Amino acid sequence: MIGLIIKDLMNLKKLSKFYLLILAFYFIIGMAGEDQNMFGVMLIMLAVMIPMTALSYDEKNKWDRYALTMPLTRGTLVLSKYILGLIFLITALVLALLSNAVFSDVILFENLMINLTTLSVGIIMMSFIFPILLKYGVEKGRILMMIVIFAPTALIVMLSKLGISVPDTGKIEMFLKFLPVVALAFYVVSIFVSMSIYKKKEF
Fold this sequence. Notes:
- It is a single chain.
- Helix content is 85%, strand content 0%.
- The longest helix has 54 residues, at 108-161.
- The model has no long low-confidence stretch (mean pLDDT 80).
- The protein is built from seven helices and no strands.
- By secondary structure, it is mainly alpha-helical.
């Protein structure tokens, strides 16, 4: 398992300068603008996309065919990607918390709640994206992946156009408190769904 994660990290190292450039750009934008939480949001979104890049490398190099000739189970191969994603999400959360603590005047509790909410959204997005990419492949699944990413925003805009009222602040705050639990449940279910898909997949 550790070897699989190290393999992915070594592949992703090729794009490390590109990712650092993106982070630097959004850090400057976030610090210069009024919304200093923007950097944390972009960190989480980037953390969601990085494991997708790892899957793309595997597909391009036909890694799965080679890996299945070794004493590795299909479940282990799938789980390694989920752990990789979680590593990047937690790293993004820590960086976002530190950034807000140092460069903004947001109080500690609010800082934690904002970033936990963003982390939960990232986990839910990843939970939907992984099964899609494992089922259809990175190239074919790219369109569906973009739909998953932008569907929530489109839904909110559509509801506002239809005049449907947004829930009051109390209900939203209550929902956000339980969002990390919901996200964790989605993640666990997604792992089993992905394992089921991958076990039936032919290479």
